[in-house]
Amino acid sequence: MTLPRAPRGRPRDSRAHQAILTAAAELVAELGYAATSIGAVAARAGVGKDTVYRRWSGKAELVYEAVFTGTEAAPVPDTGSLPGDLTALLEELVQEFSAPAAAAALPGLLADFAASPELQARIRSEFLAPAKAGLVELFERAVQRGEVDPGLPVDLVLDTLAGAIFFHVGLVGEQPSPRLATQLAALVGRGIESR
Amino acid sequence: MTLPRAPRGRPRDSRAHQAILTAAAELVAELGYAATSIGAVAARAGVGKDTVYRRWSGKAELVYEAVFTGTEAAPVPDTGSLPGDLTALLEELVQEFSAPAAAAALPGLLADFAASPELQARIRSEFLAPAKAGLVELFERAVQRGEVDPGLPVDLVLDTLAGAIFFHVGLVGEQPSPRLATQLAALVGRGIESR
Amino acid sequence: MTLPRAPRGRPRDSRAHQAILTAAAELVAELGYAATSIGAVAARAGVGKDTVYRRWSGKAELVYEAVFTGTEAAPVPDTGSLPGDLTALLEELVQEFSAPAAAAALPGLLADFAASPELQARIRSEFLAPAKAGLVELFERAVQRGEVDPGLPVDLVLDTLAGAIFFHVGLVGEQPSPRLATQLAALVGRGIESR
Amino acid sequence: MTLPRAPRGRPRDSRAHQAILTAAAELVAELGYAATSIGAVAARAGVGKDTVYRRWSGKAELVYEAVFTGTEAAPVPDTGSLPGDLTALLEELVQEFSAPAAAAALPGLLADFAASPELQARIRSEFLAPAKAGLVELFERAVQRGEVDPGLPVDLVLDTLAGAIFFHVGLVGEQPSPRLATQLAALVGRGIESR
DNA sequence: TATTAACCGAGACGGTACGTCCGGTCTTGGA
DNA sequence: TCCAAGACCGGACGTACCGTCTCGGTTAATA
C-alpha cells in the first residue's frame, strides 16, 4: 500500500493544471501534434516548463489527457437490439475521434504510444480496457437476445471498429461521412450475428 | 505528355540509392522510426546527407520506400470463393504489416503521412488505390458468383481491414496471432455477404 | 538611463563563459581562424552550441573577445620624450599582435569584421577608439614639449602604426623582428615631429 | 627543366577564362568576398565548376587574379623629388585598393593568403616584390639627390605604406579621403628623409 | 511565529537532429 | 583533352526542442 503521504509545502496550482491542458488542446488543434512542443504549451499557458514536466512525463501523456479526458465516459448504449447498440456506440466513437483536436492528435499520439512499452500499457488499460468492458456488456445482452453466439473475439472486434475509424479519420483528414457509423455498424454487426 | 527531359550531368548512383534504402530499413528495425535520423541513415549508407535529400523530401518518404516498396505487388488472390480470397488477401496484408521493419515503422509513418496533405495524397494514390483496385476485382468475381451484392462500400471495407490490422499490430507490438487473418476474414466476409 | 532589468531565470554560468573563451583561443592557436568552428569550440568547452550563440553572435565576435579582451589596457606610456613614448606604445602593440593566438586570428578576424557594418562599428568603438585616445594623450604631452605641432592627423597615424604591424605580422607569419617597434617608432616619429 | 609539353586534345577555351574572371569580379563587388562561392562564379560565367578548378586552385587565387591583375603595372613615378614621387606612388596605390571590387575583396583575400604558406609566398613574390623593386628604384634616385640616406629599411616602408592604406580602406569601408595619399606621403616622406 | 518543503515563472544548461550550403572531386555525354 | 551539368562525400552552419537544472520568490502546513 502506498501511504497517502501527507502533502507538505505549497500545493500544486490547479489553475496552472487547467491552463496547460487548454493550451495543449488549442495548440494541437491549431498546429498539429508534431508541431506542438512542450515549450510552446508552457509559454501559452503562462507557465514554466518544469510545471508541465512535474505533472506529465512528456507530450504524449499531456496531449492524451488534454484531448481525450474531457469526454465524459458515456453510458453503454442499450437500445434493445444489436444493430442499434452498435450504431449508437460507433456514433459516439466517430464523434470523439473526429473532434478537431482529436483528429489532429490521433496519429501522432498513437505513434508515440506505440513506441513506448509503458505508454502502450497505459493506453491498453485506460482507453481500450473500458471500451472492451462496454463492448462485452453490450454483447452479453445480445447473447441473451440470441443475436450473437457466445465466444466472440471481442478484442478483434474492438480493434476492427477502432482501427476502421482511425484509418478513415487519420488518412482522409476531413469530417467523416455521417453514414460512417451506420455503415460500419451494419458491416460488423452482420459479421458477428449468429445464424 | 511529359518530355523525356534528356538527362545531363552525372547520373545518380544507384548503389547509393540502394545503400540508403537498406540503411534506412535496418535502422528503423533496430531503433524504431522516431530514433532513426536522416543523418544516421546517411552515415550508415556511407553517403552525404545531400545525397539523401536529393532523392527524398524527408524521413517519411524515405522510410516508406525503404520498408514498403521492396514488396512485389502480389497478384489478387483467386481461390474461387469470397472467404478464401479474403483470407488470402489478409494473410498477405498481415505478413506485410508485421515484418519487423514495417511494424516498427508503421505508426510513426502513418503519423507523418497524416500530418502532411502532400504525403496523405501520395499514400492514398500509391498504397490505398492499388489495394482498392485489387479489392474491387475480388468483389466483382464474388458478385458474379452471387456471394455479395453489388454496391459494396469498398472504401469502408478497405479502411476496416487495414485499420484492424494496423491497430492490432501497432498497439500490441508483437507478432500477430496466426489466426488474425482468418478471424478477420470471417468477420468481414460474413458482414458483406449477400443474403 | 538603462534600467537594471532585474535578471530572471537561471543566471548564465560564468564557468561556461570562461571555458568557451579558453577553448576558442586554443583552437585558433592550434588550427587557425578559418579551421576553427563554433561546433568545435563548444565541444572542447563541454558546452552546447546554443550556449555559445546565446552569448556571441558568431565566430568573429567570439574569437575577438577570446583573443583580445584578456589583455589589460596598459597605461599610456610616459617616458618624457616622443620617440620613447612611441617606442613603448609600439612594443606593446607588437607584442599583442604577435601573440600566437592573435597572430593566427588577426587576418581572418579583420576580414570578418570588415564584411559586416555592425562589426566594423564595434571594432572602431571598442578597439580603435581607446587606442586613439591613448595616442591623443601622448601627442598632447609632445605638443606641450614642443616636439610636434598641434593638428596632427591622429587617425592617419593610428592607421599607419596598426596597419604597418598588421601587414608585417599577417604576411610574414613569423615572430616579428624585435627591432620592428624601434624602427617604426623612428620612422613615424620623425615623420610627425615639428621642425 | 619542364618540357613545353605539346598540348593534346581540345585546347582550353579562352572565352571561358575571361568569363570566369569577369563573373568573379562582379560577384565580389556585389556580395563581398565571403559570400562569393566558386559555384556561383561558375554558374554566372556559364561554366562548370571543374573549368574553374582546372585553372585556379581556389577562391583566393581566382579572386586575386580577377581583381588585381587587370591593372597595368604603372611605371615608377619620376617627378624629380621624393615627396612628389611618393605622392604619385601612393595615389596609384590608393586608387587600386579602393576600387569597389578591390576594397570588397582585400580583407578576405588577405586572410586566405595569410592562412596558407603557398599563397603567402605567391603574394610576396608577385605583389610585394615588384612593389618593392619600384620603391627601391625610387629611393635610389632620392639617394643620389641626397634626399634620403642609403640603407633604408625598404621592407618596413613598404609594409607601412600598404598597411596604412589597407587598414584605412578595410576598416572604414568608404571611399578614402582624397588627401589620404598626400598626407601619408608627407608623413612617411619626412620620416625617411636624411638630415 | 518561524521554519520548511514543495511549488512557481523564467530561462540557461548539454545534447541531438534538422535542412541548407559549400568545397573539391568524379562521372556522364558530347565537342 | 576539354567542356557543361550535376551527383558525390564531407562537414559547418544557425535553429529548434528535448528534458534537466538553477535562480529568486511564493504559499501553505508543520513546529
UniProtKB/TrEMBL annotation, chains A, B, C, D:
Alphabetized SUPFAM superfamilies for the sequence: Homeodomain-like, Tetracyclin repressor-like, C-terminal domain
Keyword DNA-binding: yes
Start-end of DNA-binding region: 37-56
Organism for this UniProt entry: Streptomyces albidochromogenes
Protein name: TetR/AcrR family transcriptional regulator
PANTHER family, A to Z: HTH-TYPE TRANSCRIPTIONAL REGULATOR RUTR (PTHR30055), TETR-FAMILY TRANSCRIPTIONAL REGULATOR (PTHR30055:SF148)
All residue ranges annotated as the HTH tetR-type domain in the record: 14-74
Gene3D superfamilies named among the record's database cross-references: Homeodomain-like, Tetracycline Repressor, domain 2
Keyword Nucleotide-binding: no
Domain of life: Bacteria
Keywords: DNA-binding, Transcription, Transcription regulation
InterPro entries given in the database record: Homeodomain-like_sf (IPR009057), HTH-type_TetR-like_transc_reg (IPR050109), HTH_TetR (IPR001647), Tet_transcr_reg_TetR-rel_C_sf (IPR036271), TetR_C (IPR011075)
